């Protein structure tokens, strides 16, 4: 039994196993797991399907370690599906729990063996929050390229980037916009590109937005109006204007010679859209280059203009009246200044001859003008007496000054003798010797006499003797010799005296006499020069003489006046400076002056005599007016004109002040002339102010926007004084009151051309109302989108206007503009491009249509035919008249019939003349067009 059981078990079991093995198969993976990238917390499945007999069991391994599933731990988030796939309820990825990411394989087993799948990676998707590089705010100018950099945050898989502008996804269809590697580039930027830009990074985890970046597209500053060069006179006001557009609004400032201008010296302000620099009173130092500088965040531009300052001529040294003896030389200085340097010339009153510096002298060579404007009259003759006028001229104005030359007799009006050194006070002891000096000079040689207490001295006492050079010596002095001793120098021209006191004491202890030493007294000062003259005063200046002895402490001035006295008079002493004004002189009197210096040793020798000078005349009574005095006094009146004040576009107020006024002045003559808008200055116009006490007048009825030169002149009846310095004023401008003239419109090129040429002449000069600054051209169509406008500088007289549309009718108008605005437009000229068109020309009245019609070929042909018919009819009529006259040849013609024939003959001549002129015009028109060969015989 036991053996049988063993055999059965053995045989049955072996037989059964043999049968199973023939039907079973080892495991085989038919579906391998694939790599997965899954977001954290999301479900995921790793597929794995195996076949085999018996059905294999499946296990999962991660990184070589067996994976725990819900079959091992019901709480596990990993489930082993019946198919063998591994299902994750949620992907775990973090520090607290074991992460699910790794390399997975599935293993299928049965008793026949096991099978291993391919490795499958499970990765957890990641997208961080922080961008590696955020875009930054950017500012660019219109037309520039804008770039916004962006590096997305780290993530897995690598995130893709795109851009949003103002919360909307940026359209990349625009060729100007490109995105490469997260960097956004916008070329040729426009104002519409301004906005808020955000860089967006995205992967399967989601999206991340960068920080916001502001892109600002601004406009560089662009000049709408540039400052223009200007030329003005000193003390005139002026303005520089500039206008600039830009975004953001540019900041503006003015510079001169690379230095910013301060508002304390200059007036700088905005006037609407203009940035204005105003100088109220221009000076020479204001000349230079002025720059308007505009700057904003994206650019800087500047425009410059040059200011030229003209300074009206002014006298530095005026010529003064002179009294010169015959045969002597007269010199009249005339020094001027101005900008540019004035041209100085002289003219003798009543003569048309002008004397210029370095000009060859006249025939006798006595009159000449030096380079610095000084007039010299050599070997003065009686005929040279009169008034001489110095005139200075520049583009900024002119001035003039008169000086009188009086010729004195060489033997007459000689000054009295001069005592160079006179006696000095002294004290002598009884029995001593006293010596009084007296050195006199003059022409003729003077004689010297002495007086004691006013009584002639010489010849009465042998102790008194006259020494060489006129000195008085007293020997053996006595107490009775005490007194005042006077030296008198006498000649035919007058006498001069000098006194000194002698004191005689009986004790030698009282002697207090210091002998006079002429070597230590001060030397003579220079010749005194006259610096100013009025009716009762003369101003003098001089220079100190050689320094001898002690320093000069004061000066003494002596004067000799014709018709005042026949001797020299001390008119001033204790004068501390080298200039002095001598007062209380007689009017209309000739004076001579000498100066002496004083020091501790005494009174020095006299200076050379001054030139004769005449004080001004007082106003004579109304009766018996001396015309010579009237002319002289009017010549001394100085009129100082103030800057004219412009009141309106047609009126200017003129004011002035007067130096050295005279009762002769009846009124003032205001002269003015136009200096702009004409090829050369216009004629002087005159407006008199007949009230001598008033100092202002308003000139009205002036032209608009015109520069006028103005000056003022005092007058008395037919006599006139010196003109004031000329000044200029420009009346206010207005827009031109008339359109441009001779407007011509021409087509250019072929019939399909889109350009025309427009030319014109300025408006009439009397209607320009100022300085033309620009011309505006309008090409207006029925629809505004076809309009074309253009502006050109005032120097341009023709322009090509392009960009017009063919087949569109345009109205072409032209207008001139001043600083006050644009004036009247010209009459519209109609033109259609693409049509057969010659040219359109308008005159000042715009009526040349007749000449246009006459030039048409059809009109010329028709008129030529009509002319031919008239000529044929006229020939037939002549033939008929001649035949009729033959029939009447045997009869005597009456006077009435003859007159009738003559009248008819005159009519025939008139018809022929009209035909001839018409034919000539037709031929001229035919030659211009070149389309008809018209021959009239």
UniProtKB/TrEMBL annotation:
Q: Which residues form the Ig-like domain?
A: 27-123, 129-216, 221-308, 313-408, 417-503
The record's Gene Ontology cellular component field reads: membrane
Which Gene3D superfamilies did the record assign? Answer: Immunoglobulins
Biological-process GO terms, alphabetical: cell differentiation; central nervous system development; chemotaxis; regulation of anatomical structure morphogenesis; regulation of multicellular organismal process
Among SUPFAM superfamilies, the record links this protein to: Fibronectin type III, Immunoglobulin
Stated membrane topology is:
Single-pass type I membrane protein
Under InterPro entries, the record lists: FN3_dom, FN3_sf, Ig-like_dom, Ig-like_dom_sf, Ig-like_fold, Ig_I-set, Ig_sub, Ig_sub2
Domain Fibronectin type-III positions: 524-618, 637-734, 739-836
Source superkingdom: Eukaryota
The record's subcellular locations are: Membrane
Instruction: Enumerate the UniProt keywords alphabetically.
Output: Chemotaxis, Developmental protein, Differentiation, Disulfide bond, Glycoprotein, Immunoglobulin domain, Membrane, Neurogenesis, Phosphoprotein, Receptor, Repeat, Signal, Transmembrane, Transmembrane helix
Locate the region Disordered. 605-624
The answer to whether keyword Phosphoprotein applies is yes
From the record, give the transmembrane residue ranges. 858-880
Question: Where is it mostly found?
Answer: membrane
**A Pfam family recorded for this sequence:** I-set
| Entries under PANTHER family matching the protein | CTX-RELATED TYPE I TRANSMEMBRANE PROTEIN, ROUNDABOUT HOMOLOG 2
Entry similarity comment: Belongs to the immunoglobulin superfamily. ROBO family.
Protein name stated in the entry: Roundabout guidance receptor 2
Q: Which organism is it from?
A: Takifugu rubripes
Q: What is the lineage of its organism?
A: Eukaryota, Metazoa, Chordata, Craniata, Vertebrata
